[in-house]
Amino acid sequence: MMEYRIAIPHCYKWMAAGNKKLYIEYIKGYIKSSHPGLKPVRIEGSYVICVKK
Fold first, then answer.
1. pLDDT digits over 14-32, tens only?
2. Is the pTM higher than 0.70?
């Protein structure tokens, strides 16, 4: 299965203010709105790894 590496906008780390659960929710919302055909699988540093739905 092909994996896609999407850069996470820097502002999400700042907006979450250290709250890991909120940070993950921001990333899920970003992928859902900006890349609707992809599903987030994991986070690697400042990238989210996604697969096609």
1. 999 999 999 999 999 999 9
2. yes
> What region does 13 belong to: left with phi over 0, alpha with psi -120 to 50, or beta?
alpha
Distance between CA atoms of residues 21 and 25, nearest Å = 6
Q: In this predicted structure, what is the pLDDT of residue 1?
A: 83
Cα–Cα–Cα angle for 44, 46, 49, nearest 5°? 45
User: Identity (one letter) of the amino acid at 22?
Assistant: L
Closest C-alpha to 28, from 53, 52, 8:
8
β-sheet bridge partners, residue 45: none
